[in-house]
Amino acid sequence: MAMAESIKKKPPCPPVAASSEAARVILDVAEQLAQTRGYNGFSYADIAAKVGVTKASLHYHFPSKAELGRALIARYQAVFGAALEAIDQRALEPAEKLRRYVGLYDAVMRNDRVCLCGMLAAEYATLPAPMQAGLKQFFDMNERWLTTVLRDGRRSGSFLFNESANQRARVLLGALEGAMLLARSYGDSLRFRAAAEHVLEELGARRKSRPAGPR
After folding, report:
1. Which residue of 66, 89, 100, 206 has the lowest C-beta tally within 10 Å?
2. Do 74 and 120 contact (CB within 8 A), yes or no?
3. How far apart are CA 104 and CA 10, in angstroms?
4. 30 inside domain
5. Residue 170 CB-half CA count within 13 A
6. Do residues 155 and 148 lie in contact, with contact meaning Cβ atoms separated by under 8 Å?
7. What is the reported pLDDT for 10?
8. The domain that contains 37 carries what CATH number?
């Protein structure tokens, strides 16, 4: 599916001369490292070794690791936001939108990674202030989108829940992000899918098929 494929990450490309392309390659490698090791689990030396450039070259594009981290979050939010827009355009019913939303996370899990911002949130206290602000923006974006979908679903009779749509959105987002981290600790993506199906079942949004993922 297009929206799930849009957040799947390709293997790092070889370095090239063009500055914009070189920056993209650096971000690709840094994102993969952040999603698998965390922000504090890699250094510029790690990136340089994978990309095949000097650390000085990395500093040319991203003078500090904090700036690199902020760029990672901004890019991830833009890609995820585009995926949400695609869901809005292609899935008319709230229940289907929610299933495809879960599919975005499932696609990341199948790629042996977790949500970049979910991983970084586990290190929140140690992150530079601009990165902390970026994380909140990412989660706020997701909460707003989920709130709208949940509100529409309750109005149409697709969803059943007692709290406000915004409160349920926060619970849903936290459940999915937490389920990803727990599944990763066991190296078992099925744990995430089981948790996601339970969350959808509680809302009445689950079908016999599992949440949408990459095809």
Report:
1. 89
2. no
3. 15
4. yes
5. 6
6. no
7. 39
8. 1.10.357.10
